[in-house]
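Revision sheet: structure tokens.
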Amino acid sequence: MSVLAVSGLLAGCAQLLTIPVDAMTTVGEDRTLSETKDDFRIKASILNAFAGESYGLLVDINTDVYESEVMLTGSVKQNADRRKAVELVRRVDGVKKLYNEIQVTQEGGIGTTARDIVIELKLKVYLLGAAGVGSINLRWRSVNGVVYYIGQVHSEEELDKVMHITHAVDGVKNVVSHIRIRIKLASGS
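Predicted:
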């Protein structure tokens, strides 16, 4: 089996394994247990649809769900694959909004994937350590040096910190944000 085939197989397995990992990271989020459960169900349904349609969709496309909003990222070589992924997601019950950030490109490969993984890991470390940033309420992916976000923050200041940190990471070419600002109300209000 070739190195590319093995890396593709591992990427597909890793995506399926993110569901239990996502479950462990939701403690402390600003979502209800019901919202979290709905998001897991939506993600599992999308991954199941991708697996039933094409191994390539499962391997090449990342699925992140936050409060029933879906962000698709990754890269495919043909626009038909991008359209198919969107069509499958639109069939999933409970999806409120879809952010289609799938790149159609011939770029990529192991070197690009490795650089994107490094960017994602650096962001995890930097955001987790940043004062005033609730990174647990954010999901991010790097694809060919473009970082995509979905989730929520509590203030414009927090959003500015996230953007500043992201732009400072070596290798980041651009940032696309689907982050909402949710202002916490004081108790008793």
